[in-house]
């Protein structure tokens, strides 16, 4: 009898898991099961989930348990977010989700190497820790949070790092949305290769 440990026993720090509607970017409006990993070394000052930063605050849960919970809901769309999910090797978790019939999206700042075969990579670079060019190159979606006017130029710099088919989104930082959204409207009208992403889940007051 083999003494090897089943790979799905690999554990991840889980801040929360919940079933909701994806509120942002290309998949906005779709029912999705979110897996929020604890741990982040990027440290955005305007982060709305700062409780996720310290991985030690969150319980370690096996990939098998995570997948079992996800199976309780009808949607086959999984969103792995954080925190910063690429701090971890996600091969075991993503492979297990694929075997269970799920489509797996990941949301990342790109500050760590991609370890896992996600179906869709939402690359959301942050000024607080430089992203890796190899993550930008494989991104399906570039989502830049706009906090002030200088961020438009910063967004254009990162646009140069993604592939030709990558979807481009500008999203107002939530606390400044009343100021930033009108600027986004005018910018996208002048630069129609970009689209606006709004945090739909916050407007309709769901997780």
Can you put this structure into words, describing what you see?
The chain has 207 residues and is of the alpha/beta class. The chain has six helices and nine strands; from the N terminus they run E-E-E-H-E-H-E-E-H-E-H-E-H-E-H. The chain has helices at residues 63-70, 91-99, 133-138, 150-159, 177-190, 200-203, and strands at residues 11-21, 31-37, 60-62, 77-81, 103-108, 120-123, 141-146, 167-172, 195-196. The chain has a nine-stranded mixed beta sheet with strand order 3-1-2-4-5-6-7-8-9. Helix 5 (177-190) links the parallel strand 8 (167-172) and strand 9 (195-196). Helix 1 (63-70) runs parallel beside helix 2 (91-99). The protein starts with 10 loop residues before the first strand and ends with a helix. The relative contact order is 0.16. The mean pLDDT is 93.
Helices and strands in order:
Blueprint: E1 11-21, E2 31-37, E3 60-62, H1 63-70, E4 77-81, H2 91-99, E5 103-108, E6 120-123, H3 133-138, E7 141-146, H4 150-159, E8 167-172, H5 177-190, E9 195-196, H6 200-203
Parallel strand pairs: 2-4, 4-5, 5-6, 6-7, 7-8, 8-9
Antiparallel strand pairs: 1-2, 1-3
């Amino acid at each position: 009898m083999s003494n090897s440990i089943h790979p799905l026993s690999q554990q991840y720090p889980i801040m929360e898991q919940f079933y909701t509607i994806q509120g942002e970017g290309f998949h906005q409006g779709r029912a999705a099961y979110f897996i929020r990993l604890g741990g982040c070394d990027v440290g955005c000052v305007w982060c709305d989930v700062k409780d996720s930063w310290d991985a030690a605050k969150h319980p370690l849960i096996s990939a098998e348990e995570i997948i079992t919970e996800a199976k309780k809901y009808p949607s086959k769309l999984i969103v792995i977010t954080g925190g910063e999910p690429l701090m971890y090797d996600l091969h075991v978790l993503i492979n297990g989700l694929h075997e269970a019939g799920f489509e797996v999206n990941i949301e990342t700042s790109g500050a760590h190497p991609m370890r896992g075969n996600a179906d869709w990579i939402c690359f959301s670079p942050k000024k607080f820790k430089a992203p890796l060019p190899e993550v930008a190159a494989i991104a399906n979606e570039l989502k830049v949070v706009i906090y002030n006017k200088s961020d438009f130029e910063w967004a254009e710099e990162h646009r140069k790092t993604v592939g030709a088919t990558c979807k481009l989104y500008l999203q107002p930082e939530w606390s400044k949305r009343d100021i930033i959204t009108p600027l986004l409207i005018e910018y996208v009208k002048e630069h129609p290769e970009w689209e606006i992403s709004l945090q739909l889940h916050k407007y309709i007051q769901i997780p």
